[in-house]
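=== Per-residue structure ===
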Amino acid sequence: MESGHLQRRLGLISATSITVGAVIGSGIFLKPLIVSQSLPAIGWIFALWIGLGVICLFGAFAYGELGSMFPQAGGQYAFLREAWGRGVGFTYGWVFFWVINSGTVAALAVAFAEYLLPGVNRLLGLGLTPGQLSSPYVITAVATVMILFLAVVNHVGVIFGALLQNVSTLAKVGALGTLIVGGAMLVFGDDPAALAARVPDPSTFTPAADAQASLTQAGLVTAFIGIFWAYEGWYQMPFNAAEIKRPERNVPRGLILGMVILVVVYAAMNWIYLEMVPFAEMRSLQEGEDQQVAYRTVARIFSPEVADYLTVAVAISVMGAANPNFLSSPRAFYAMAKDGMVPRALSRVSPKWKTPVVSIWVQAIWAVGLVLYLQKFHDITSFVVFAGFLFYAMTVAGVYRLRFLRPDAERPYRCTGYPVTPALFILVSVAFVVALLLDEAEQMNALYGLAILATGVLYYWGWHIGHRTGREGADISEGDTAATAMAPVTEPALEVEDEAAAADPAESAEGDPPDRPAGG
């Protein structure tokens, strides 16, 4: 039984911060190397970093329309349920839990531990050896602490989780901004000799064996994985729609403003990287030296001593990227529980903290379990990206379906560039998913994703439909089970007690009067 309700306390700043904070993490520090080695020229690097960012922005346009139509908790789950039916919504929730969200949290937790430990070791003079720093027991312990810390922060209130997100986002964007400004001052400074003295001659480097000399499908697939991983998380903010004030305005604005910031920051960061670490030098680095691009950039702009602490900054950024998975994602489980798709306990909201505490802790426990068995970071990231884009494409396609099914529904925000922008997003997403399935190096990761999806379908049809049939046999006959399961929901199934929320004076924590959602 529910013991509380979600409250609208987050404004546009928090909505934008969730979008940016959910994305900037390990990708901009770890993926530039593999992208540069997968492409034959600098022009392709900028074309893909900017172009794929714009493609994600097109997806954000569609999510903005859906978020303004259905500003209740659940985000992408709610969008899929409304557009395609409960069966599709459940399948997404299943893959989201077992692959997308949990895999992201586990991968980021391990990355956090691997980057935090060396920096802290130098900062505090602990004297740990490289073998001790790379010990799976130590890494697992630190990763587990990070997961539990974020769970506790988000347990005690959405404001605390949002505050942590705002601080970490400002810190990481500030650090990236300092790097960009510092690099630009050095590049455009009055002393070209100083820059030449810090940046080595590109002609002295020999490309690594796996560096692509021409544009190939395999190289494009690898680059797409790296860049899409760097942008992964752009969809997170609508999961908090039930806690965002004036969602019909702040959901689309937070998505679009956040994506514009991300495209600009990523393009600028790659420019600085290539100015400080020439393209030929990047292509000469060996497998496992992903962190060297950012490390050498900082060392050449500032000093090697500053670069020694880069790992700590990366760790903070990674933790900030993992936080939205706890701030936002458990709301999907909350919505699924409200729909009867998963155990009702997952919809329990703390009467004291007004947060979905059971969902938060179930997610945390499963993420810790994945950390214990996590193997390769690259396999996890490609696994997550493949599974994610299957449902991103279907969600964006839901805009077309809902325009057809509900042409008169209230849409406070309408997808910018419709019908072209969502069509381009779907086209790129489908091509990417197919390419992953055909690529020998990534095929197994894609098949693992399909296997998880298939188990979700079997679970839904075998257990959930059977359970509903047994429980509601008088209402669901053998012949119409499939139609009932897959039919779009004509009215939002998730109800949030906005009347109680509106009466709560804490609702105005960010200064604006509480709002009723459009169509809420």
